[in-house]
Design brief:
The complex is a heterodimer of chains A (461) and B (308).
Chain A lengths: L1 H13 L6 H14 L4 H12 L6 H11 L16 H13 L5 H9 L5 H10 L8 H15 L1 H18 L3 H36 L3 H4 L12 H29 L3 E2 L1 H7 L12 E2 L6 E7 L5 H17 L2 E7 L3 E3 L1 H6 L2 H13 L10 H11 L8 E6 L11 H10 L2 E6 L13 H4 L5 E4 L3 H14 L1
Parallel strand pairs in A: 3-4, 3-6, 6-7, 7-8
Antiparallel strand pairs in A: 1-2, 4-5
Chain B lengths: L5 H10 L6 H13 L3 E4 L6 H12 L3 E5 L6 H4 L1 E3 L1 H10 L1 H8 L5 H10 L1 H4 L5 E3 L1 H7 L5 E5 L6 H13 L1 E4 L3 E4 L5 E6 L7 H6 L1 E4 L5 H11 L5 H15 L9 H13 L7 H11 L3 H17 L5
Parallel strand pairs in B: 1-8, 1-9, 2-5, 5-8
Antiparallel strand pairs in B: 3-4, 6-7
Helix pairs in contact in B: 1-2, 1-3, 12-13, 12-14, 14-15, 15-16
Classes of the chains: A alpha/beta (461), B alpha/beta (308).
Chain lengths: 461, 308
């Protein structure tokens, strides 16, 4: 059983859940305490020790049955209930049918399904080794069932019924037989699906670890596959948490501060002026951020990442206000703060794209004007303003005056641009105009660049 | 005293008027057998804090509570030196001090002699224990509730890690204080920020979500027995319906209970539009939400035949 749990942990890790050595050791101890006889208890003890995030429950629930079940529902034996005569009739009728579906018919009537090895061979023939996730697994399952001959089964069964009727089997017996065969057919389909699911999970577990082995850190955001994007999204979250604790440490060390004579005298009045408590002047370094996120079409491939980053930053830096723009500026702090990451990002995307989608409607200049009219109070001399966007303004007025003014008002104005500098100025990009007005411009095309940019951002915020 | 098995956990929590799901019972039992803290996450008001209280009561152990907030630091959570008391003692012991220092010739000698007596002023007499130290030094096992850990700063979280992994703390003047009995620890979080992985790694994880209709009905029956059963069912169904709506703040279990009590107090016969509009503010805390819910109920009244 221990081996099985280790396999399961590998499967979970491959699916993107972080499970440490200590946690799998805990799982073993928990199983030792509670045993494996009660399946529900067993499942709960694994879940509480291995999964520490409710977002990951789905992965757990998906993989658990694949690793710890008998391999699908059992099938029944159709022959048992038949009299000897009827059994002979059935055998004769089966033989009379064309031999193509013999194996399938045998499984369905006798109740002895294919063995695990047989299923694995069938799966291999159906191309399970090329499937990377459970969605593709559904396709493999369909192919397998096709190859087994499920598509022709209907005809075969009808023929079988006719033959049995000719041979003089009673109506009830035939109907009963068909009922069992039908139930077996469903059970077999489930067994096949489970087997495929398990094989895919195991394959994934044994594939080399993509994230750290490969250059995922350096792959441009728009070139990511769905699965890679999921992995990276988790990385973004970890990244911001790490940076946050690093920033907190920095601030803590900075706390020692200068000796505060006035404060010390005041605090020690109650001890008759004997300096029992020393006071130090602490520099208040509470970061405050204003994030302005471009959610236009040209940013579509990276917008989700930018929003994700916005979400995590807002989560970590207490004083953060976030805005999103497309044709006009809107505050998105509330949407982002109230929800879990996925819902929050989807919520924003939907609120921007749910309305009639307009092409070529990006207007940063106008959006900035809206920001100025409504939310200027959010920018003061302690605020770091970060614009996440490509500066493609669709030939509208770039409103450089507002950017210039914003840079003056804010502590710093920083721009994260997902485009390479050589693309700036091409087409409708106003980046060359904006860039000199910012305190800093970072190119963030991949996670490595993003992480270093955010690090610098938090360090100075 | 300790729980025998999972069923025992469920039953004894039940005796404390806490309805524990199988999952909660399993996790509590595991926490006890593996000596690990529990991290309970979930929306506000689903009974996470209540769980700690019931746990302590079921074991007959005292509950020590540490409420976290932004700016909480070690001195408020662990211990403080009682300066005033130290001052007072030096004043009162002035004569004794004079005796000790009476015959010294130089300032240096006086200082060194005083240094020998220094331990008197930094002993446990002058140590003001805060919740964490109280939990560690208690003579009987306690349940330690660290409430809303997500509101504390990251630095405090790091400090807590040290306490939770070894159940010992070091006070520079006194040395290391080890726990006499390992306390049972429950941390709660409302998920307002991500907790560090290191902390999560050390805990068993428990997600407490909103209960199903039946489970919530059981809770209402238990806590507000005066509410008539059919009315209770109607009320809980309404709350569950509200939770599916897109609201700024969905009603929690505690709000369901408040509402149930309000219905009893108002002697309501049925949940009609009038009772709804007069009591809805018990459930919903934003004006926009109230308006939205009223519109929904109004529509439901016109369309649904079952709603009078």
């Amino acid at each position: 059983m221990d081996d099985r749990i280790i396999e399961f942990v590998r499967g979970m890790r491959a699916a993107g859940v972080r499970v440490s050595m200590a946690e799998s050791a805990d799982a073993m101890r928990a199983v030792e305490v509670l045993g494996v006889h009660d399946k529900d208890l067993f499942r709960q003890s694994l879940r509480t020790t291995l999964v520490k995030e409710s977002d990951d429950f789905a992965v757990f629930e998906e993989l658990f049955p694949l690793y710890f079940s008998a391999g699908g529902p059992p099938m029944q034996n159709a022959l048992e209930d038949l009299s000897e005569d009827e059994q002979e009739m059935l055998q004769a009728a089966l033989q009379a049918l064309s031999g193509r579906l013999q194996a399938l018919m045998d499984w369905l009537t006798s109740g002895d399904g294919p063995t695990r090895e047989e299923l694995e061979q069938l799966a291999e023939r159906a191309g399970v080794q090329w499937a990377h996730n459970q969605q593709e697994g559904a396709w493999v399952t369909r192919r397998m069932l096709q190859q087994m001959g499920m598509t022709h089964l209907e005809d075969q069964l009808r023929e079988l019924m006719e033959r049995l009727a000719e041979m003089g089997m009673s109506r009830e017996a035939i109907e009963k037989l068909m009922g069992i065969v039908e139930a077996n057919r469903e059970a077999l389909a489930e067994q096949v699906a489970e087997s495929v699911g398990r094989q895919i999970a195991e394959q994934r577990a044994h594939r080399p670890d993509d994230l750290f082995g490969s250059d995922l850190m350096h792959k441009p955001f728009e070139a990511l596959s769905q699965e890679e994007a999921n992995l990276l999204r988790k990385e973004v979250q970890r990244l911001v948490t790490q940076l946050r604790s690093r920033a907190a440490l920095r601030r803590k060390r900075g706390k020692e501060g200068r000796f505060d004579s006035k404060g010390t005298i005041r605090a020690n009045q109650r001890y008759g002026g004997v300096p029992m408590e020393l006071k130090f002047k602490r520099k208040k370094l509470k970061p405050s951020l204003v994030l302005i996120c471009d959610i236009s079409r040209s940013m579509l491939s990276v917008a989700e990442f930018m929003l994700r980053l916005t979400y995590e930053l807002q989560d970590q830096v207490a004083k953060t206000r976030s805005f999103g723009f497309y044709s006009d500026m809107e505050e998105i702090s509330l949407v982002l703060s109230g929800n879990r990451a996925v819902e929050a990002v989807d919520g924003v995307m939907e609120s921007f794209y749910g309305r009639a989608p307009q092409h070529y409607a990006t207007d940063l200049g106008h959006s900035l004007a809206t920001l100025y009219d409504n939310w200027l109070d959010s920018i003061n001399n302690r605020t770091t303003v970060v614009i996440l966007g490509d500066g493609r303004n669709n030939f509208n007025d770039p409103r450089l005056d507002l950017i210039k003014d914003m840079q003056k008002r804010a502590r710093r104005l920083i721009w994260f641009n997902p485009e390479a500098p050589r693309q700036w100025g091409e087409g409708d990009s106003d980046m060359p105009l904006y860039a000199p007005l910012c305190d800093q411009v970072y190119m963030v095309r991949n996670l490595a660049q993003l992480s270093s940019a955010v690090d610098k951002l938090i360090a100075g915020a | 005293m300790m729980f025998k098995d999972r069923a025992d956990v469920g039953q004894r929590l039940g005796n404390q008027q806490y309805i524990a799901s199988n999952e909660i019972a399993t996790v509590i039992y595991l926490a006890q057998s593996l000596c690990k803290p529990i991290l309970a996450e979930g929306p506000a008001g689903v009974g996470k804090t209540e769980l700690a209280k019931a746990w302590a009561a079921a074991l007959g152990a005292p509950l020590v509570r540490l409420q976290c907030y932004e700016g909480l630091d070690e001195s408020k959570a662990l211990y403080e030196w009682e300066y005033a008391k130290q001052m007072l003692y030096t004043q009162l012991l002035r004569d004794t001090l004079r005796n000790v220092l009476g015959d010294v010739a130089s300032l240096a000698e006086a200082a060194s002699r005083l240094a020998q007596e220094e331990d008197v002023f930094f002993s446990e007499n002058f140590l003001l224990p805060r919740p964490l130290l109280k939990a560690l030094t208690s003579d009987e096992p306690v349940v330690l509730l660290i409430d809303e850990i997500d509101r504390a700063d990251v630095e405090f979280e790091a400090f807590l890690l040290e306490v939770l992994s070894d159940f010992q703390v070091s006070v520079p003047e006194l040395g290391t204080i080890r726990a006499k009995h390992q306390p049972m620890v429950l941390l709660t979080s409302n998920n307002t920020r991500e907790l560090s992985e290191a902390l999560k790694r050390r805990c068993l994880y428990l997600y407490v979500g909103y209960p199903t209709l039946e489970a919530e009905l059981d809770i209402v029956h238990l806590k507000v027995p005066d509410l008539r059963p059919e009315l209770a069912r109607q009320a809980v169904a309404t709350v569950q319906q509200l939770r599916n709506m897109d609201l700024r703040k969905v009603p929690s279990i505690s709000e369901t209970l408040d509402w149930a009590r309000a219905l009893v107090a108002l002697n309501a016969r049925a949940i009609d539009e009038e009772t709804m509009s007069s009591t809805l503010t018990v459930l919903l805390k934003y004006e926009a939400d109230v308006q939205k819910a009223k519109r929904m109920m109004g529509n439901g009244g016109r369309r649904g035949p079952g709603n009078r």
